[in-house]
Amino acid sequence: MIHEWLLDGSLALLILTLAVAVLYVRSLYASIVLFIAFGLLLALIWARLGAPDLALAEAAIGAGLTGTLLLAALGRTPVSQRAEPAFSGARQYVRSGPAVVLSLLIFWILLQAVLPLPEQSSAVVRAAEQHLDAAGVAHPVTAVLLNFRAWDTLLELLVLLLAFMAVRQLLPSLPRAPEAWPLLLGWSCLLAPLIILIGGYLLWRGSSDPGGAFQAGALLAAGAILLRLTDLLPAMGWHHAWVRLLVLGGCAFFLLVGLFTHWLGAGFLAYPEGWAGPLIILIEVAATLSIAITLTLLVIGETREVRG
Amino acid sequence: MTQVLFYLILGVALWVLGLHGLIRLHQPIRRIISVNIMGSGVFMVMVALARRSEDPDPVMHALVVTGLVVAISATAFALRLAVTGQRSEEDRE
Amino acid sequence: MTAALAALLIPLFTALGLLLLRSRSGPLVILTSLATLAAACWALVEVTTSGPQSLHLGDWPEPLAIRFQLQPITALLLVFTALIHLLVAVYAARSRHCRTRDTDYWPLSCLLQGSLNALWLSSDLFNWYVTLELLGLAAVALVALSGRKAYGPALNYLLLSLGASLVYLLGVALIYGRYGVLDITLLATQTEADQSTRVAFWLMTLGLMLKAALWPLHLWLPKAHASAPTAVSALLSALVVKGPLFILWRLWSEAAPVELAIETGPLLAIAGVAALLLGGWSALRTPWLKSLVAYSTVAQLGYALMALGLLMHWQLPALDAALWLFVLAHGLAKASMFLAAGELQATLGSKRVSALRGTTETMPVAMFAFAVAGGSLIGLPPSGGFLAKWMLLEPMLGQSEHWPWVAGILLGTLISAGYVFRVVALAFDRADPVPPDFKPDRFAHWLAMLPALVVWGLALVSQPLIAWLTGATP
Fold first, then answer.
1. In this complex, is the C-beta atom of B57 within 8 Å of any C-beta atom belonging to chain A?
2. Helix (DSSP H) and strand (DSSP E) numbers for chain B
3. C53-56/C67-70 β-pairing
4. A8 with B74: Cβ contact below 8 A
5. The domain that contains B29 carries what CATH number?
6. What is the per-residue DSSP string for chain A?
7. How far apart are CA C384 and CA C386, in angstroms?
8. Which of C139, C166, C129 is nearest to A155 (CA)?
9. Residue of B nearest to A63 (CA)
10. Which region, left, alpha or beta, applies to residue A50 given φ > 0 means left and ψ of -120 to 50 means alpha?
11. Does B42 contact chain A (CB < 8 Å)?
């Protein structure tokens, strides 16, 4: 029992320290590196709390891709703005006083609110367990994502698409990547197929065990980014029809499924009897490819041809 | 105190830290990081709530996956906006 | 329900199609906007003849599914959204200064309409979070269209909008933790006024107030709305801020425990009065034309917030009608005002209010549109704004203890008259008019006039409209 608490306690202490350090360390570079560590630690906590799906997603998306994005942004930030004189003088301590007191007050109020929560239970969970057999997939998280609450997932694909469109229209600011050095090239040749394999496996496994479209998509994106940075993959410009098809494919296919199910009379996004399994797999494949390509484009940001 | 409550409180603490950072900090990239920490706090509350039943609650897990994707989308956009904005300020000077 | 689904799906498919074909075709968007408007009108007819409908997505039973709910108000908002979107699309396709040719304006505006329609139809707390994020991202992307000078305000808007979503989401998590459901109708049967519920509702309210730019969380709005391209400003002020307001209304009028609503109502109403006075004061003082219009949005949202707060406090469903009349009247008037202001400042080549000197001579139609829309904002009879204000005042007039609210409304009216007449008086100063840089675009000016005329037209159908609204709100 005490071991359990020791683990939880040290995880909590570590993550709080990291969070404070991320926010208030002077150098922006240190802050970003610490934030990546924060993400990895968070993945550990998700695993500890019995959420392997989230651990995978957090490690790939939260720590990996966000970290890459942050480092890329740092590279384009002028040196003069990289260090924030966070807490240097006594005057600043005085000025930050009210904000700290307010934060503590908010924390106290929230504390009162969460205290009774562990005693409650949820009707939705019971319903989800009850209907899992009819959902077409065995893994409950995938069933919720792609069947019970498929509309959320569809909208979320739209959010990703929207972010991509928004980034695309901003003026490009990517300096030419330096020539890849031989070791990186060698490793990429080795790693990329492996990543693609694991990504495919995660996708496939998602129907019965932790894993699924988002984790797989994020992993595939990581592989694609590696290959693209070493110039082993051709440029993925928006003017290529295949890029557009893949990026839009996830949303479009999902929406079409909704349209046809409504048309056939089953109800919007209600998969016909016996079709749930195959349809979910198809949607997941389309969504994985969409997510992978969109995330790759978000990170690499090939925007050159937009303004033409 | 149970494990669920412990992580609920931890989540709330992270959320408040992130909120404080968002309000107090000025450098855009740091503010974006603050929002992400705030998000992690909410997700921790949700995952802790999922832990209440014997089998973890799949609904909350699915919602957090959705939340994570929303978070990275918004982060990517915000970062690009911040960087391009800084650039243009420099150009003007 | 088919019609409502069509109104939801047409804009989304249009956006995907435009992106896939790399098309920047305005006429196509106008065509699909017309189709959406037709679908929305059909939904309105359907809901009026056969009553409210609900659809369980995926055909799953009660607590599991996300539910679409088509109420009369929802249908009305679908029509309103389609109408404004169509109008702005016609303007954007035609106007010289909307940057539709070299940007992704069209797919973005279609996605904006799609996400708003998703928001109106939904009745699920978490689904609302996703639609809010969609709406926020689309809005910020549209603001950023006007180029580098808008990036700063856009980033600020984005960060605050993200922070607000997370405040809202924590509230949703607490609600789920306490009651274990996300559907608002199911929630309504269970809520009690305990500490967790109270904090959860406050969190959701704060998040939504920040998103809707309700006072005192409005500081991001004027810069963001003023720096956007004209067509976008109109969309943002007329439509986008109403999305979070709608959720706020659904939360408090359907799901919140009555004691909590009675307790929180006065706070919101006071914030509403403060918005009226302080927003109006800023509009009186700003030197920039578009900022003036944006601050007037802050002020006018104060009426809606006040209606909501008093409706909660007095538990008076009659004020529902006042709230939604305000939303409709303000949306139409503001679309008109932003289009007119954008045309005026682009043609005059200056963003200052002082450049408007003598515009009644150089651009009479645009100036007239501005003044007519302003009349509705002030609440001159017989405009839509007057109707809304009358509906709000009516329950107060009988009782003498309500005089502070009445005084607040009257003072707000005076201030809005002040900032509208500030512009109009300058425009009538014809002695030495500022010469326009370009030839005025008559068609765009008449387009700006259209919604203003519709607002005044609302008065013609006031009796049936009020009866319908009163019967329509649950």
1. yes
2. 3, 0
3. antiparallel
4. no
5. 1.10.287.3510
6. -HHHHHHHHHHHHHHHHHHHHHHH-SBHHHHHHHHHHHHHHHHHHHHHTT-HHHHHHIIIIIIIIHHHHHHHHHHTS-GGGSB---S-SHHHHHHHHHHHHHHHHHHHHHHHHHTTGGG---HHHHHHHHHGGGGS-SSHHHHIIIIITHHHHHHHHHHHHHHHHHHHHSPP-PPPPPPPPHHHHHHHHHHHHHHHHHHHHHHHHTTTSS--HHHHHHHHHHHHHHHHHTT-S----TTSHHHHHHHHHHHHHHHHHHHHHHHTTS-TT-PPTTTHHHHHHHHHHHHHHHHHHHHHHHHH---TTTT-
7. 5
8. C129
9. B72
10. left
11. no
In chain C, the residue whose alpha carbon lies closest to the alpha carbon of B51 is C177
Chain C interface disruption, residue of A108, A117, A121, A159, most C CBs within 10 A:
A159
d(CA A247, CA C19): 10
- Please tell me the distance from the alpha carbon of residue C5 to that of residue C42, in angstroms, as a whole number: 11
Q: What are the angstrom distances between the C-alpha of C179 and each of C144, C150, C166, C182, C249?
A: 40, 43, 20, 8, 20
Tracing tokens 């900090």 back to the chain, one arrives at: B25
Is B50 part of the contact surface with chain C (CB cutoff 8 Å)?
A: no
Which residue would you say has higher pLDDT here, A186 or C337?
C337
Q: What are phi and psi of A269, to 5 degrees?
A: 65, 20
Helix (H) or strand (E) holding C434: none
Tokens, residue C330: 């303000």
C-alpha–C-alpha distance, residues A146 and A136, integer Å: 10
Q: Which domains does chain A carry?
A: 1-86 (1.20.120.1200), 133-308 (no CATH)
Q: Which two tokens stand for residue A49?
A: 């709390």
- What are A188-207's pLDDT values in tens digits? 888 888 888 888 888 888 77
Sign of the Cα pseudo-torsion (A271, A275, A277, A279, in order): negative
- List CB contacts (< 8 A) between C174 and chain B: 45
| Residues on chain C touching A239 (C-beta within 8 angstroms) | 22
Does residue B76 have a pLDDT over 50?
Answer: yes
Q: What are phi and psi of C124, to 5 degrees?
A: -125, 130
In the block, tokens 């991001």 appear at C220
Q: Locate A229 and state its tokens.
A: 């940075």
The total number of structural domains in chain B stands at 1
Tens digit of pLDDT at every position of chain C (474 positions): 889 999 999 999 999 999 999 888 888 999 999 999 999 999 999 998 988 888 888 888 888 889 999 988 999 999 999 999 999 999 998 877 666 777 888 999 999 999 999 999 999 999 999 999 999 999 999 999 888 888 889 999 999 999 999 999 999 999 999 998 999 999 999 888 889 999 999 999 999 999 998 888 888 888 888 888 888 999 999 999 999 999 999 999 989 999 999 999 999 999 999 999 999 999 999 999 999 999 999 999 999 999 999 999 988 888 888 899 899 999 999 999 999 999 888 888 888 888 888 888 888 899 999 999 999 999 888 888 888 888 888 888 878 888 888 999 999 999 999 999 999 998 888 888 888 887 888 888 898 999 999 988 888 888 888 888 877 655
**pLDDT tens-digit series, residues C419-432:** 999 999 988 888 88
Q: Could B71 and A125 be called an inter-chain contact, meaning their C-beta atoms sit closer than 8 Å?
A: no
Measured between beta carbons, the chain A residues lying within 8 angstroms of B57 are 122, 124-125
CA-nearest of C177, C93, C25, C156 to C441 is C93
State which residue of chain C sits closest to B62, comparing Cα positions.
C126
Chain C residues inside the 8 Å CB shell of B72: none
- Answer whether B53 touches A (CB < 8 Å): yes
The domain of B22 spans: 3-92
Question: pTM for this one?
Answer: 0.94
Q: Do B70 and C130 touch (CB under 8 A)?
A: yes
Contact A250, A289 (CB under 8 A): yes
